[in-house]
Amino acid sequence: ASLDRIRELNPTINAFLHVDEEGALATARDVDARRAEGEALGRLAGIPIAIKDNLVMKGVPTTCGSKMLDGWRPPYDATVVTRVREAGMPIVGKTNMDEFAMGSSTEYSAFGATKNPWDVERIPGGSGGGSAAAVAAFMVPLALGSDTGGSIRQPGSVTGTVGAKPTYGAVSRYGLIAMASSLDQVGPVARTVADAAALQEVIGGHDELDSTSLDAPVPHLEDLVNAVGADRIKGMKIGVVEQMMTDGFEPGVRSEFEAAVDRLEAAGAEIVTVSCPSFEYALAAYYLIMPAEVSSNMARFDGMRFGLRAEPESGPITAERVMAESRGQGFGDEVKRRIILGTHVLSAGYFDAYYGSAQKVRTLVQRDLEQAFASVDVLVTPTSPTTAFKFGEKIDDPMAMYLNDLATIPANLAGIPGISVPCGLSEGLPVGFQILAPVHRDDLMYEVAAAVE
Ligand code: GLN
C-alpha cells in the first residue's frame, strides 16, 4: 500500500529521491515468513519507513540533496539504518532535503523542491521536507530525519506531523553525513506522538561507533506515552518562553499556540511565563557556529573520494584545480555561502570576535535553560514563526530564510530534546507546538506532547 501510494503521489510531491521497492518488499516478506513461524517480533516489524537522504544505506544511492554525491552508493549502513532493519521495518526509500541539510524549505535541494501535501504551492519546511511530506501525505507512517537547527521540527510544524529531536547523544550519528557535528541529531517523524516515541525507542541507545553517543539506557517511551492520561499533566509546571511570543510570530500561529496552552491549563497544568534573555542572540550564534563546523565538514568533498569529479576545461589538470572545479560544480549557492562564512569566522583575525563570542552565547543559552528548568518541568513555544510559506518567497533572502529557525535553535545549542506537535490550523494550514525538556528527559517531552495532541 505504501509503495502504491508513493507511485501515485510522488510525481507531484517529490518527497522521495529514491524508492527501494525490491529491498522494502524483501523485508516485508521476510517479516511475514518469520511471523508465520511464530517468531516474536517487535511492534514496528513490517511497518514501512522512509529515510532522509543524509543517512547512509549500503548499496542504495545517498545524495544529501546534492549533485556532489549524485551516483554515490555508500559501502555501509548508518547505525540507525541497522536498528531499523533489525526491527524488521521495510525501508521504502530515501527522502528529499535541502542540500547537505542546509535550509528551511527544501528549495535548496539539487533535485527540485518537495511540495507540501496541504497545498502544493507551499514549502514543506526544511531541511527534512521530504520525510515530513512523505508522512503527511500518508506515503509512509514513519520516517527518519536529522535536526541541526530545526530540520525535523520545523517541517513537522508546517506539514502537521510530529517531529522530535532527541537529547544530543541519545541517538547515534554514525552514518549521518555531518552538517554541524556538535548540533546534529537524528530523530523520528510520525503522525502521532506514540508512533514517534516508538521509533525513538528503536533507533536510540548507546553506539560505540559514535564517540558522542550517551551510554544510558533507553527509556520505554512508547509504553509511557500510551499510559499518559490528562492526570499526568495535573500539577506540572509549564513555562511559556516570553522571547518567543513576539511580533516575529504570525498572529494565527500565536493564537493557535495560546489556545493549546489554555487546554494544558484546563487539564491541570500550571502555566508560567519564563524569560530566556539569551534566546534573542541564539539565532546569530547558531549562524556562526554552524557554518564554522560546516566549512570543516564539507572539506572532505574534494572530487577525489566521493561522487562528482570535474576537471577544468583547459589548462593543467592539477589536484587543486580538480578540487576547485568539482566543488564549484558540485555545491549549490547556499552550501558555498556557508563554507565561505565558516572559513571567515574561523580565520585567525576574526576567530575571537565571531566564533569565540558565539561560543559564549551558546554557554549563556545553556545557563538560561538550566535556570528555567530549575523552576518549570518543560518549556513551550510555537515551533515556527509562520505557517508554510509559498515557494520563492524567501529563497533570495537568506536572512528571511534563517529566521524560520528562531524557536528551534536553542535546543540544538544546548543539546536538550525538543518536539513539534500539531496544535491547530491557521487559515487552513497546520501550526506546530514545540515542547523543550531538560537534557535526558525525552520521556517528559513525549508525555507533555501526548497531552497536547
Ligand atoms: N534551517 C536550519 C539551517 O538551515 C536547520 C538545518 C538543520 O536542522 N539541518 O541551518
Q: How are the secondary structure elements laid out?
A:
Layout: H1 2-13, E1 16-19, H2 21-36, E2 49-52, H3 79-86, E3 91-95, H4 129-136, E4 142-146, H5 153-159, E5 162-165, E6 186-190, H6 193-203, H7 221-227, H8 230-233, E7 237-241, H9 251-266, E8 270-274, H10 279-297, H11 319-330, H12 333-346, H13 352-375, E9 378-382, H14 398-402, H15 409-414, E10 418-426, E11 429-436, H16 442-452
Parallel strand pairs: 2-3, 2-4, 7-8, 7-9
Antiparallel strand pairs: 1-3, 4-6, 5-6, 5-10, 9-11, 10-11
Keywords: ATP-binding, Ligase, Nucleotide-binding, Protein biosynthesis
InterPro entries: Amidase, Amidase_CS, Amidase_dom, AS_sf, GatA
GO molecular function, one term: glutaminyl-tRNA synthase (glutamine-hydrolyzing) activity
Give keywords.
globular, 11-stranded mixed beta sheet, 40% helix, alpha/beta, Amidase signature (AS) enzymes, binds glutamine, single chain
* Ligands bound, unique: glutamine
Which ranges are low-confidence, i.e. pLDDT below 50, for 5 or more consecutive residues?
A: none
Strand composition percent: 5-15%
CATH architecture of one domain: Alpha-Beta Complex
How do the strands line up in the largest sheet? 1-3-2-4-6-5-10-11-9-7-8
| Fraction of residues in helix | 25-40%
> Would you tell me the structural class of the helices and strands?
alpha/beta
Overall residue-averaged pLDDT value? 96
- Shape descriptor reads globular
Q: Using DSSP, what is the number of strands?
A: 11
Radius of gyration: 21 Å
The SSE string, one letter per element, is: HEHEHEHEHEEHHHEHEHHHHEHHEEH
Task: Report, as a whole number of angstroms, the end-to-end distance.
Answer: 26 Å
Pfam family, one: Amidase
Family: Belongs to the amidase family. GatA subfamily.
Keywords: ATP-binding, Ligase, Nucleotide-binding, Protein biosynthesis
InterPro entries: Amidase, Amidase_CS, Amidase_dom, AS_sf, GatA
